[in-house]
Design a protein that fits this description.
One of its GO terms (cellular component) is cytoplasm. It catalyses: an N-acyl-L-alpha-aminoacyl-tRNA + H2O = an N-acyl-L-amino acid + a tRNA + H(+). Monomer. The protein is built from 6 helices and 7 strands; from the N terminus they run βαβββαββαβααα. By secondary structure, the chain is an alpha/beta fold. A hairpin with a 4-residue loop joins strand 2 and strand 3. The chain is globular and about 45 Å long. The chain has a 7-stranded mixed sheet with strand order 2-3-4-1-5-7-6, with helices on both faces.
Length: 201
């Protein structure tokens, strides 16, 4: 099978100290962990509306981007980068929080619905309505007693944070597989992950 041709990895979140460590910032947290792992320098480039880096992930050249607009306008950054560097939608991987998965769960998918995620909606719009890009979904769960905005902009409890961190470490290995072995191998590795202490019912 052909190796994945990912050219751009985008981590979604909101910029600013008040958003650090929130559930909605799981995507950009993973992006910066990826940059640290592969020693990729990240710097703000205002013409692309984001904090960007360029380097090698598992031996494959790729660009990293954290949009510095509001989450709902993330497409401004992605659209500008894809236009300037001629990156196709299928060469994009977006890292984002996912309420439909519990903390400690991660999934790699290509295309499909946007699950009401405004950052993904903005990116799809910037790509001419195309939804055919890769997403790495990082589970944050739901709380029926809290409204969605307050929940995603809140910080996870220590136990939840530990689950998200463990899933994130596994996701870093999965991203390396995506770059070197392709999406099928990466999806099998990522989607089968279960955090330590997980028991089958």
């Amino acid at each position: 099978m052909a190796v994945s041709q990912i050219k751009l990895i985008v981590g979604l979140g909101n910029i600013g100290a008040k958003y650090q460590g929130t559930r909605h910032n799981c995507g950009c947290d993973l992006l910066f962990a990826l940059a640290d792992t592969y020693r990729i320098s990240m710097n703000e480039e205002k013409r692309f509306f984001g904090i960007l880096g360029r380097g090698n992930v598992a031996g494959c050249e790729v660009r990293l981007a954290f949009p510095t607009t509001l989450m709902n306008l993330s497409g401004q950054c992605v659209g500008a980068l894809c236009t300037f560097y001629r990156i196709a939608p299928q060469e994009v991987l977006v890292l984002h929080d996912e309420m439909d998965l519990p903390p400690g769960s991660i999934r790699l998918k290509f295309g499909g619905g946007l699950a009401g995620h405004n950052g993904l909606k903005s990116i799809a719009s910037s790509l001419g309505g195309q939804q055919d890009f890769y997403r790495l979904r990082i589970g944050i769960g739901k709380d029926a007693k809290r409204d969605t905005i307050n929940f995603v902009l809140g910080r996870p409890a220590p136990a939840e944070r530990a689950l998200i961190a463990e899933a994130g470490a596994h996701a870093l290995e999965g991203i390396a597989l995506l770059m070197t072995k392709g999406p099928e191998r990466a999806a099998s590795f990522i989607n089968s992950f279960k955090p330590s202490g997980f028991a089958e019912v």
